[in-house]
Design a protein that fits this description.
A hairpin with a 4-residue loop joins strand 13 and strand 14. The strands form 3 sheets. Strands 5, 6, 9, 10, 11, 13 and 14 form a 7-stranded mixed sheet that branches. A 5-stranded mixed sheet has the order 4-3-12-7-8. The longest helix is centred in the first third of the chain and has 14 residues. The protein starts with 18 loop residues before the first helix and ends in a 14-residue tail after the last helix. By secondary structure, the chain is α+β, with helices and mostly antiparallel strands. It is built from 8 helices and 14 strands. The N terminus is likely disordered. It has a single domain, classed as Oxidoreductase, molybdopterin-binding domain (Sulfite Oxidase, Chain A, domain 2, Alpha-Beta Complex), CATH 3.90.420.10.
């Protein structure tokens, strides 16, 4: 039985971003078009981010910053610094280290198409810009919790995954959605490593995919999402460990069979299909009781479902079943 704990935003005031700081940041971005970031009281473009400005402009750039969704306007923690969140990344297609942001700039994000197939009314492939412009864009501040026990808090832009499911028109008999990311070893050297089961795949139940918290990401910090963070389309399911949030997605397949995901295929004893955050269920090789906030290295307690239990716990009928947390 789910026992309601204190809400994720019920933290000391010192842990939250002051309202005027966040609002001033958004106001500046709206005026400046997101072309720079604020640092040390002046307009500064961090050196490590310069490569991102050298790529062709995103065709949907004028859609950002998206309007904030008031239901997800804060997450009870200070926002992670933009430069930190965009230069400390996992993206195994480009390497297994955390500083892959530079290598990820090789990923061409246009042209880009997304395919909907499997148990749908009509299989089809759509251009990413057509898809983005068909969706109700908004901004949501979410926590992100990696299975490696580091965490960040960022303002994603995008649209509810429920809207994407509606767009795909799955049959009523579909119970799962399988997501597949791009596959191109010529630009992603990590995909030359034969011991990984490429392409990267992930899956959700239809109930999870249509939950109010599940979110398709197209932007970050008021701009189109950078390549290293999953451009042009990624998933955010913040009550699950980060490896469930597939990046650079090209295919959604609706099925009545539970998908075998990338990490589950590679190491099923450590990374399962469900992967819901639970501080009391350790990873086989380390504790999940605490997490490290990147940028500050503060250690904080991990919350069950990463603080989103009120919205998602009902999806899991027996929380004593540990498989829901691997």
């Amino acid at each position: 039985m789910w026992i309601k704990r204190r809400k994720d935003w019920e933290l000391p005031e010192s842990a939250a971003t002051p309202e005027h700081v966040y609002l001033n940041r958004r106001r500046f971005m709206q005026i400046a078009g997101g072309g720079a970031v604020i640092g040390a009281g002046a307009l500064v473009l961090p050196q490590r981010m310069q490569a991102q400005t050298e790529t062709p402009p995103d065709p949907t750039a004028e859609l950002y910053p998206a309007a904030p969704n008031p239901e997800f306007a804060e997450a009870g923690r200070a926002l992670t610094d933009e430069e930190v969140a965009t230069t400390y990344n996992n993206f195994y297609e480009f390497g297994s280290h955390k500083q892959i942001w530079r290598a990820a700039q090789a990923l061409p994000t246009r042209p880009w198409t997304v395919t909907f197939d499997g148990m749908v009314e009509e299989e089809r492939t759509v251009d990413i810009d057509t898809l983005i412009r068909a969706m109700p864009l908004e901004e949501r501040v979410y926590r992100h919790r990696c299975v490696e026990a580091w965490a960040m808090t960022v303002p994603w832009s995008g649209f509810p995954m429920a809207a994407l499911v509606d767009y795909a028109r799955p049959l009523s008999s579909a119970r799962y959605v399988r997501m597949q990311t791009f596959e191109d070893a010529e630009v992603a050297p990590g995909q030359e490593q034969f011991w990984y089961p490429w392409p990267y795949t992930e899956g959700l139940t239809i109930a999870e995919a249509t939950n109010e918290v599940a979110f398709m990401v197209t932007g970050l910090y008021g701009r189109p999402v950078p390549r290293q963070n999953g451009a042009p389309l990624r998933l955010a399911v913040p009550w699950k460990y980060g490896f469930k949030s597939a990046k650079s997605i090209v295919r959604f397949t609706f099925t009545d069979q539970q998908p075998l995901s990338f990490w589950e295929n590679l190491a099923g004893n450590e990374y399962g299909f469900w992967a819901n955050v639970n501080p009391e269920v350790p990873h086989p090789r380390w504790s999940q009781a605490t997490e490290r906030l990147i940028g500050t290295n503060d250690e904080v307690p991990t919350q069950i479902f990463n603080g989103y239990g009120e919205q998602v716990a009902h999806l899991y009928p027996d929380l004593s079943d540990e498989r829901y947390f691997h």
